[in-house]
Amino acid sequence: xxxxxxxxxxxxxxxxxxxxxxxxxxxxxxxxxxxxxxxxxxxxxxxxxxxxxxxxxxxxxxxxxxxxxxxxxxxxxxxxxxxxxxxxxxxxxxxxxxxxxxxxxxxxxxxxxxxxxxxxxxxxxxxxxxxxxxxxxxxxxxxx
Length: 144
Hints:
Layout: H1 5-15, E1 21-22, H2 33-47, H3 53-65, H4 70-83, E2 100-101, H5 104-112, E3 120-125, E4 128-133, E5 142-143
Antiparallel strand pairs: 1-2, 3-4, 3-5
C-alpha cells in the first residue's frame, strides 16, 4: 500500500499507539462501490435475506468513515460468514473482527505473564516490530 503525505502521517500515528492497532487497516486499497456490492451479495446469499436498504447504507457509510480497505472488508466478510450463524446481525457485529498488533511493551508483558516466543509472532512494519499471538491470521508483512 503506497502512502501519500497525509496517509503517511496517519500511518505513523497508528503505529505509535501504545494500545496496539488493527493491522487490517494497513493492507489493501481504498474500498469502492464494487467492494460493497460484492460483500452485500455474499451476505444476502449466505443468509437468504434482503436486508433493508437503510441498514446497509448505514453500515457502508460507517465502514467508509473508518477508512476500511478492500482487504479489511474481504477478510471481515469471510469471518462474518464463518462466525455469524443467524441473519439478524447488527452493524456493531461488523466491527468486532480485527487482527491486532502491539508494540514491544506488550510483547515484554506477555513474556512476563509466561508466554514464550512460540506463542507470539512479530512483524516488521516501517522499520518497527509489532507483535501478536500466533494464530491462523497471516499478514503480508515481513515476519521476524
